[in-house]
Write a structure and sequence with these properties.
The chain has about 350 residues and is of the alpha+beta class. Among the domains are: about 60 residues; about 170 residues, Double Stranded RNA Binding Domain (2-Layer Sandwich), CATH 3.30.160. The termini are far apart. This is INO80 complex subunit E N-terminal domain-containing protein. Keywords: Nucleus. Pfam families: FYRC, FYRN, INO80E. It comes from Nasonia vitripennis.
């Protein structure tokens, strides 16, 4: 009996000890489980916070780019790539702005010793050489919103700069492939009527291909290897008497317009151009600062503006009455206008 009682006592004590250990481990398991659960929740919250911060960083970067683009347009002379490199702390070019400013200070010191007339001479030259850029709407990324309307000229695409072929740019102009614009001018069928012409610059291999297509003659594009050649063919197609007008193809296409030229110059790939010399632009501060804009040329140049064309030949017709003999081609064109 005593042996059975002792065995049962030890067995119960062993079972009780094992039960207490199980309870102890169970409590530890619950604590570890709670810690893991809290860690997972905290990790998820941190992930959400990191994602939110990344979104905020993207928005801030876009706003920063927009402000930099606007600053580049306001200052005009500063290259956007150089300004971006300076803002990031990596200067891509060896401080061009400081070198550009120090000679001006030296010139001012030298001119201060000389006569005061020499101070005004370079200023007058700068005023005549300046190119005024008009303000255009931009998106949140600082890119222009198309179409860009500039009087009779409307630009729908700037195209892509071709840097590996020398014929696609000159010292003053860039011919981007894919450039597309429209302009209102005299119709091919009737010079008294207006017509909408689409101007394109296409990839022609070694040389670019320039096209002018009328909305009334879509299947008969006027093609040339240069903008002047294309514009000259347009004037001849409208009337042979317009051969006396000097062609201005770059102005007709719009690639020489300061606003468009500034946007093309800011496109990627322009730094690789071997011949092109970067132009300097100034932002238009008021509506009267348009003395060098091609929009005024549309109002005075008969080769660019419809109203200027009719006004030019109306004045020349009164002059032809007083002078003898009159040009037959001019009279034929006046009959078309009458």
């Amino acid at each position: 009996m005593s042996n059975s009682y002792g065995s049962t006592y030890y067995s119960e004590a062993y079972n009780n000890k094992e039960h207490q250990q199980n309870l102890k481990y169970k409590k530890k398991y619950k604590k570890i489980k709670e810690l893991i659960k809290n860690t997972v929740i905290e990790n998820a919250a941190l992930c959400d916070q990191v994602a939110q911060m990344q979104e905020n960083l993207v928005v801030v970067k876009e706003e920063r780019l927009m402000l930099l683009k606007r600053l580049c347009q306001l200052q005009g002379e500063i290259d956007p790539a150089t300004l971006l490199a300076k803002s990031q702390g990596t200067s891509s070019s060896p401080v061009p702005t400081s070198d550009a400013f120090t000679p001006k200070k030296n010139v001012k010191k030298r001119n201060s010793v000389e006569t005061p007339d020499t101070k005004n001479k370079p200023k007058r030259c700068n005023k005549t050489m300046r190119k005024v850029v008009q303000l255009i709407p931009l998106d949140i990324h600082g890119r222009p919103i198309f179409p860009i309307s500039l009087g009779d000229l409307t630009v729908y695409s700037l195209g892509d700069v071709v840097a590996d072929r020398i014929a696609y740019h000159t010292e003053d102009l860039i011919y981007p492939v894919g450039y597309c614009s429209t302009r209102v001018y005299a119709s091919l069928k009737d010079a008294r009527m207006k017509s909408l012409y689409t101007c394109k610059i296409l990839d022609g291999g070694i040389k670019p291909r320039f096209e002018i297509v009328s909305d009334t003659e879509l299947d008969q594009p006027l093609v040339g290897s240069s903008p002047d050649e294309c514009h000259s063919r347009l004037l001849t197609a409208i009337s042979p008497s317009l051969n006396s007008i000097s062609p201005k193809g770059a102005d007709f296409f719009g690639i020489s317009h300061p606003t468009i030229q500034n946007l093309i110059q800011s496109s990627p790939g322009t730094r690789k151009l071997s011949i092109y010399k970067p132009q300097k632009f100034e932002i238009s501060k008021n509506s009267t600062d348009r003395d060098t804009s091609p929009i005024t040329e549309e109002e005075t140049d008969p080769g660019l503006g419809f109203a200027a064309l009719h006004r030019h030949y109306a004045l020349s017709s009164t002059y032809a009455i007083k002078q003898e003999p009159a040009n037959r081609e001019l009279l034929n064109f006046q009959e078309l206008l009458s």
